[in-house]
């Protein structure tokens, strides 16, 4: 389904089912569309800033979403506050719309938390790195909602590549048989890292739903209005007890899979250029401008707001505290198990020993240290990421340098590695990371 063409022309639904979906956006006025456009601009800016931060060694990794703003903002804006979303690792736009502080998302990629936010506070689960696993979590959650009397819906975000996972097949099967109130929202961004969708399926992914006994719909994922309409329709089905729906949002990952990937190795520039013509922001901008809702001054205002947002994000990212080493055990289980307690005690003992080295151990001169023989240590303070004081100023964002394939020196990925023989300082006492405030 498409309601806004790539050139920004409003079209009407083509089939009866699409008309039913379109009815779900009958109340959407120009102010609503402008608000969604603003969301998309800010989310794109968030993505650019995070990519720049990674290139500057301030994040260990980043998974860019450029190109997928409409799929994410359109679907997330369809959710009610009580609904629950289960994301993969690329849903920064959904996180933003669910009210998750973007710096919490960055904290995960900076390696200073294992979680980042309270899922129940935002109706937004933690990121799932195990591809497809979140579809099972969503289905289980949705089945629980049904047993509790229903009323809210669940949405699971996953990719075209994830659709090949056994977990997704199991989630579809369970959701269908139990009529679970879940929307399976597949962002078909054309690639699973370097693997094109054609290598995942010989039929459109939406058609897979038929084999499980629930509807599957293909929607233009670069069209925010169509995405909003289809998602509202699918969520309404879920809330009405009509069971699951598969939405395939057809979109394109304009950037790399992650900052550790080089997409020029597996796709050509013509393909990227052809998708750039279908840019989700450009078509909405064109429509808003044609309707007289967006002029140059309004556009400049939104851009200034996005720049301010990015500068604040950068400032707060650089100020994120390193977590206390023992905090890694805090949220393994609700009630700490014996073996976790033992591991915590072991690490505490090791840290205490490092704090108090034997007086006979002479300190080797750094000049004679073999620089290329790292060893793992347990204290992140040994090779902490650059502090705010030593970091580049939070001025205008830099364009990401085209240097795929590795994270920069000083990246949090390097935490825990110090040259052999170099003394390891004990960490100063620190307050727990942001996740420690989670009541669960
Ligand atoms: C179970 C599992 N297998 C493999 C991986 C490695 N991996 C990470 S992302 C990815 C590709 C996923 O592609 P897709 O589902 O299309 O999502 P996208 O990254 O395009 O958003 C793979 C194979 C993983 N994280 N988990
Ligand atoms: Mg994909």
TrEMBL record:
Residues of the Dehydrogenase E1 component domain: 39-302
Compositional bias of kind Low complexity: 368-390, 404-424
Region (Disordered): 354-440
Keywords: Oxidoreductase, Pyruvate, Thiamine pyrophosphate
Highest taxon of source: Bacteria
Essential cofactor(s): thiamine diphosphate
UniProt entry tagged with the keyword Oxidoreductase: yes
GO molecular function, one term: oxidoreductase activity, acting on the aldehyde or oxo group of donors, disulfide as acceptor
A GO BP annotation: branched-chain amino acid catabolic process
UniProt xrefs under Gene3D superfamilies: 3.40.50.970
Pfam families attached to this UniProt entry: E1_dh
Listed Pro residues bias regions: 358-367, 391-403
InterPro entries associated with the record: Alpha-ketoacid_DH_E1_comp, DH_E1, PdhA/BkdA, THDP-binding
Protein name: Pyruvate dehydrogenase (Acetyl-transferring) E1 component subunit alpha
